[in-house]
């Protein structure tokens, strides 16, 4: 058999094998998408809304459109929280997870995500109320103020010692030779000098003593005005709505309710807040009303939607937004649905369908 004939036969065998493999793969893919998919629904309103036996919401409507366009049949499995649904997705008990699932690098190592169909962010829900007496004096009971007091006493002791050293020989009646009495009188002289009381009972008579006293006058004016301004500012702020938490910097040493296994857990810890885990927003709302937590950190669109359905003048949503994040549909690793549905999601976005669905639930001005 000649070489060209051998080459031709080999080429035909290879071509036949590739054609068979592609037909087999297509058959496998087709059998997968044609099966009854197990779809988990998890998350809060307005993304997943249960109405008796019917489901609706932003995530549900977008998923229904995807399933309809691809002729997918599925059975819904509801979940109380997203973390449990993600566990079942990893174990192969689900084919798709529908809901406000935040796309994070940590989760992306465990499961596949679709293109983001919604851009969200974290925000802070807190109480509005008149400050208590403790709230008003709390700024004065801080470790920083205690440090400042110790520093002030140390400086006062140094000035008193310098005055005693300069005056003890020339004015022993005002600054006795005994160190304790002499330094104490020197500190008293520094205090009346700083406060401009000027009783005149103790005053330096030597040149060195007057240089020390004059230098202290200049330093004490700057020190006293800075301290008084700081205290006055703290007391003024404490007279405002102390219970309102408008930024993450106010989390320190306060109990903050966050959704379990969500990005907000690490976010609150980064700002030294004490994490209180909740399963849903309604639970955080109750804790906040009962004053068991100082604030609730949750996804902003869910909070806004909840407050529209449950108006409450005692609560306020901060204007600040943190951790911009996308919501996507979740699949097991290497699922063929991921790439297939991503194309349709991009088409929905280009055609404006996603914007229409979001606007129907959140309004055009509130939609991010």
UniProtKB/TrEMBL annotation:
The keyword Transmembrane helix applies. It is a multi-pass membrane protein. It comes from the Bacteria. Residues 36-365 form the Solute-binding protein family 3/N-terminal domain. GO terms for molecular function: ligand-gated monoatomic ion channel activity. One of its GO terms (cellular component) is membrane. It is found in: Membrane. Keywords: Glycoprotein, Ion channel, Ion transport, Membrane, Receptor, Signal, Transmembrane, Transmembrane helix, Transport. Its main location: membrane. Residues 36-364 form the Ionotropic glutamate receptor C-terminal domain. Pfam families: Lig_chan, SBP_bac_3. The chain crosses the membrane at residues 145-166, 187-207, 213-237. Residues 1-22 form the signal peptide. This is Amino acid ABC transporter substrate-binding protein (PAAT family).
């Amino acid at each position: 058999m000649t070489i060209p004939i051998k080459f031709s036969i080999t080429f035909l065998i290879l071509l036949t094998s590739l054609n068979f493999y592609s037909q087999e793969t297509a058959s496998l893919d087709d059998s997968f998408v044609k099966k009854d998919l197990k779809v988990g629904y998890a998350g809060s309103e307005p993304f997943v809304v249960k109405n008796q036996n019917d489901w609706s919401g932003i995530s549900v409507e977008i998923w229904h459109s995807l399933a309809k366009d691809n002729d997918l049949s599925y059975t819904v499995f509801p979940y109380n929280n997203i973390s449990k649904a993600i566990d079942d997705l990893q174990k192969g008990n689900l084919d798709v997870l529908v809901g406000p699932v935040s796309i994070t690098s940590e989760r992306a190592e465990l499961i596949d995500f679709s293109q983001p169909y919604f851009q969200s962010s974290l925000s802070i829900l807190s109480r509005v109320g008149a400050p208590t007496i403790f709230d008003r004096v709390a700024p004065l009971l801080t470790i920083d103020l205690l440090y400042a007091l110790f520093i002030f006493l140390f400086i006062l002791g140094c000035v008193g010692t310098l005055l005693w050293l300069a005056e003890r020989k020339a004015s022993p009646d005002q600054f006795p030779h005994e160190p304790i009495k002499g330094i104490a009188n020197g500190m008293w002289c520094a205090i009346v000098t700083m406060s401009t009381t000027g009783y005149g009972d103790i005053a330096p008579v030597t040149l060195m003593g007057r240089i020390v006293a004059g230098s202290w006058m200049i330093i004490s004016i700057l020190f006293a005005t800075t301290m008084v301004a700081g205290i006055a500012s703290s007391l003024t702020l404490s007279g405002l709505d102390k219970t309102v938490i408008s930024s993450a910097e106010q989390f320190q040493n306060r109990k903050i309710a966050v959704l379990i296994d969500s990005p907000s857990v690490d976010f609150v810890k980064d700002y030294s807040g004490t994490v209180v885990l909740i399963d849903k927003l309604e639970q955080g709302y109750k804790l906040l009303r009962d004053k068991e937590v100082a604030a609730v950190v949750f996804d902003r669109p869910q909070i806004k939607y909840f407050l529209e359905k449950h108006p409450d003048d005692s609560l306020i949503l901060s204007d600040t937004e943190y951790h911009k994040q996308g919501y996507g549909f979740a699949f097991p690793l290497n699922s063929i649905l991921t790439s297939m549905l991503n194309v349709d999601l991009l088409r929905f976005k280009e055609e404006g369908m996603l914007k229409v669905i979001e606007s129907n639930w959140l309004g055009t001005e509130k939609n991010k």
